Amino acid sequence: MHPKHDEDFYGWAMAEANLLRQRRLGDLDFDNLIEELESMGASERRALVSRMAQLIFHLLKWQFQPDFRGRSWRASIKEQRKKTKGILKDNPSFKNEITNFISDAYEDAFLLIEKETPLDLKLFPAECPYSFEQIMNNEFYPE
């Protein structure tokens, strides 16, 4: 018996994959397959924005809290750059929307600044002060 999407997701997914392998297109659950594929794309987008938000957050802290700079902050920046580059490598079409991703990530980074630092929010520009090239440049640390 073929499991239902809303009752056994894993079983449903494996059964759908098997139907695809067998080229039994007439038996596929197209509506749920389409929904799941779109959801997978959205999940990758959220992962990229989340990584970029963390990266921008650390760059902002680096710039606006110079007295607290240290190895752990530098390591966090390096880690987020590496993971962001990995997501971009796996999803090259994201480069077409990078401006939107930076904007969304900056909004999230701003919320992190508000939540996790005592910094005056008026110090920060309305838009991300860093270009994509700067954000991804392993040598860039804002002063």
Which key features would you list for this structure?
143 residues, 5 helices, elongated, mainly alpha
Please characterize this protein's 3D structure:
The protein is mostly helical. The protein has one domain. The protein has 5 helices and no strands. The chain has helices at residues 9-21, 30-64, 71-90, 98-116, 132-136. Helix 2 runs antiparallel to helix 3 and helix 2 (30-64) crosses helix 4. It is elongated and about 65 Å long.
How would you briefly describe this protein structure?
The protein is mostly helical and 143 residues long. The chain has 5 helices and no strands.
Strand share of the residues?
under 5%
Q: Provide mean pLDDT, rounded.
A: 95
Query: What shape does the CA trace take?
Result: elongated
End-to-end Cα distance: 62 Å
User: Total number of β-strand segments?
Assistant: 0
